[in-house]
């Protein structure tokens, strides 16, 4: 029996002004509706064009749970194709990445397709003569995702027609991408250092929410970051602070630090922590970097770029970027209670290598399956996923610093410990879930 399918009122009722129903996290039916409606109605991150630098290069990923391919076509453009043979539905590639040459070949019946998805050849083609094959869906080849936008190297796609265009969907939030990219003296990033993948036994939205939850670090990370701080206190006077300590210690900053840090709210569920400062503000200077930036942009512009230290920027529905350390986390839904987290690192082209070293160290220390910090969060997610099955209370409270008029406000900076970003994300969730239902 279905409870929510086709029932717009029932879905919207899951999101109240100050709380959300547990079914947004635990219901498999709600999860399947997210895959059928919310993700296809949204602009979803696919990948970075530096992952496919050469003609024939491809990267396999998902939009929601739909398999797609990011591919460099022979004319140099980047395409996003559904990873499905139009014949029997077989996935064209099972590898995560590679180079297919000038065409894709289905491993089942050897149908082949150009790198823009168009049909190239079919074995025993005469068997389709006088069958009307030319008018079939299959004759069009691998279906492209119709709405694709490459924003300064970051590729997004939207499966459904209608709804918001790219600029409407993201608006002023793209400034966080701009700041991250502009930190390169030549305004260019490339994926570097591989990717860390980490399976989480929880709903994907828990991870998204946590990116703007500033009331948990000094509590959940006390055993990890707190221990680092205590060990560092015992270092001999004059000892140079190691890069690892610079990275981990700020997680133990007090509530007041995060309150004053600030949060910015943008349209459609986007926003960022770190309006005035962040845990990345006091990293040691990298020799020669500011000089390169000044030569590229002029001193005032270089100071403006590097003086912006946004903490986490959440792009609805399911990515977060850290501009100051060039990192992107992709929260990929697998099931209502399972999420694959991918943490990607980027190199600032023509910048000192020490910046990439810090980025890679941060990713290993904080986001890796072997991280001493990431396990703190994972335990909290899993406890929440289990606890939500308790019938003692079916609602999750998101009431901190609630204001009755906030739903009408956007592009505003607020107290850094507010749960407004989470409420804002769920308003966007309800909007895009029901947009075409």
Automatic annotation (TrEMBL):
Residues 43-157 form the Rieske domain. Keywords: 2Fe-2S, Iron, Iron-sulfur, Metal-binding, Oxidoreductase. InterPro entries: Rieske_2Fe-2S, Rieske_2Fe-2S_sf, Ring_hydroxy_dOase_asu_C_dom, Rng_hydr_dOase-A. Transmembrane segments: none annotated. Pfam families: Rieske, Ring_hydroxyl_A. One of its GO terms (molecular function) is oxidoreductase activity. Coiled coil: none annotated. PROSITE patterns: RIESKE. Belongs to the bacterial ring-hydroxylating dioxygenase alpha subunit family. This is Oxidoreductase. It comes from Bradyrhizobium valentinum.
